Amino acid sequence: MSGFAFAVTADGVAQSIAIDDAPTAIGALVWTHLSLGETEVRAWLTGRADLAPFIVDALTATETRPRCDAASDGAVINLRGLSSGSDQPGDSLASIRMFVSAGRVWSVSRQPLDAIERVCAAVRAGRVLDPGDLVTEIALAITDELDPMVADLGDQLDDCEESLEATQAFALRRSVNRVRVEAIGYRRFVLPQRQALEKLANLPAAWLSEEDRLHLASAADRAARMAEELEAIRERAALVHETLTDLRAEQLDQRSLVIAIAAMVFLPLTFLTGLLGMNVEGIPYAQEPWAFWGVVGVCAIMACAIAAYFIRQHWLR
Fold it and tell me: Residue 1: in which H helix or E strand, if any?
């Protein structure tokens, strides 16, 4: 079974232990992290870990959203963070599901979570002493990784808006759509994550210290700021998309106007040349040597007169 487990003493000394030894291990904190990609995880949580069925269901659910709910003597917590190994197109966020109680944390993830490496380093460095510290470290690591991604989306949209002034309409459409889709995908989970962190910070649990609650409140505040930024990015992207659509329509109107004017100029000329070009007897001046240049001159005068009319009507600028 893939995963890992740590047993942490009260003074912060962390020791890596076998997963099967985690249910009976003793320490200020025993953290067991499992990968949900294997079918035996559910059976192991039910049998070996002896967790309640509704907790196992929460840890192994196929689809999850960020949440925090009191359960038994602990809490079920779902958070979302960046994942470089996500197999879902357009979704770079992976979930980590946790059941936290006094002295123990059980966590499960379907996709590798980028923040886990940082959290493991903090555990080995002795900065995590209890379940509250671990949950806080995970929340802060996830938030720290998401923050620059959201800021980068805003920067990309700024670049698109600057290019929009140069009327790069067709080249920008795909970039704006990509930024908008990413912002919607992030916001879908960042907003409930803020609510989950706020609820966790106010949870009446003995394993959460006052310092943990302050850090969780800070992470919730940053998540709220990211959610507001993502909403602003989504609205700005929609406005830029509408502007691009208007620019494209304006370009099409201008081109249609040019085509229509050209057709109006040449329509009477075509009628005249078609009339004189009929292969029948009786066409005036057909035998005169100046007839061809005369017709050309008449056509030129007609074209100039029609163009002058369009200019006077402000159809040509």
Answer: none
- What are the tens digits of pLDDT across the range 220-278? 898 888 888 888 888 888 888 787 777 777 777 777 877 887 888 888 888 888 877 77
Instruction: Give the pLDDT confidence score for residue 89 in this predicted structure.
Output: 43
Task: Report the alpha-carbon distance of residue 215 to residue 221 in Å, rounded.
Answer: 10
Burial class (CB in 10 A: 0-12, 13-18, 19+), 183: buried
Which pLDDT score is estimated for 294? 86
Planar angle of CA 139, 231, 149, nearest 5 degrees: 50
- How far apart (Å, rounded) are the C-alpha atoms in residues 189 and 140? 16
Strand order, beta sheet including 14-17: 14-17, 3-8, 29-35, 104-109, 93-101, 74-82, 67-71
Count Cβ atoms below 10 Å from residue 23 Cβ, excluding itself: 18
Q: Between 170 and 26, name the one with better pLDDT.
A: 26
SS3 80: strand
pLDDT at 156: 82
Q: Residue 221, SS3?
A: helix
Q: Rounded CA gap, 94 and 260, in Å?
A: 55
Torsion of CA 119, 75, 108, 148, to 10 degrees: -50
Question: What does the block give as tokens for 204?
Answer: 């009446």
Backbone phi, psi, residue 313, to 5°: -85, 5
pLDDT at position 146 over 90: no
pLDDT of residue 316: 64
Question: DSSP string covering 257-315, please?
Answer: HHHHHHHHHHHHHHHHHHHHT-SSTT-TTTT-TTHHHHHHHHHHHHHHHHHHHHHHTTS
pTM of the model: 0.72
Q: Which pair of structure tokens corresponds to residue 182?
A: 């990413």
Helix (H) or strand (E) holding 146: helix 131-164
